[in-house]
User: What shape does this take?
Amino acid sequence: MSKYNFFAIISAVILLCGCAKEFNAVYKSDDYVYRYEYAKQLYAEGKFSKASIFFGDMVTLFKGTDNAEECLFLYGMSCYNSGDYESASEIFKKYYSSYSKGKYAEIANYFVGQSLYQTIPEPRLDQTPTVQAMKAYQDFIDLFPYSQYKNDAQTKLYQLQDKLVEKEFLNAKLYYNLGTYFGNCTSGGNNYEACIVTSQNALKEYPYTTLREEFATLIMKSKYALAVHSVKAKQADRFQDAEDECYGFLNEYPDSKERATAEKYITKCKRYTATGEVDNN
Assistant: This one.
């Protein structure tokens, strides 16, 4: 280690110790105004974790005073900027419920959604946080329809909706891939039926989804597979249903990459109608 690096490290340690000493001294001070100004200085310097400690401690102390509103808001922003999004969302909710007409009411309400947005999981996991974030953004748009943050909130809302649709698509695809697994198709094809129902419900709830064609493809393939694996008494109706679904698919998506699949299924459905035999090739 060079002499320069050694002294640089020593200087950094001394500086950190000095900062820690100052922090503790201010934190223990009975001068609340001084402590509050120190917290705001920390916030301005981007030391959000440290600032949140002060603001959180002083929210109760300042209750009913002129600083109470600002302190609560800065507490929420400090938590948000330090990555404590769960705490931030609760603090912003508390702020808006306490100061619905306050100076920071609009931005605090907006940051409820922003905080929840940061906690959303990947599509395969439970999407409760996604639903909560969507509700927060929608509430914000309803309350502040002319806000400068409206467009961003609307964009995030659509993004979150796409995430929920993707979750439903993964569920539907899983059902289709399970197929006859565990013998579920011996009496009608439970997995294929589940795929159909899941896909149809998703299309009803999210009619403008970008995954519309993918859902339609799963429905078409599942209806054909359901017919193939059905008991004899149900096959005629299900092959007819599958054929109708294929025609509907071709009408809606004439240029689909699955066009050949739809045409192949139609041929096989017609063959069953004519001969009563299932073509498994």
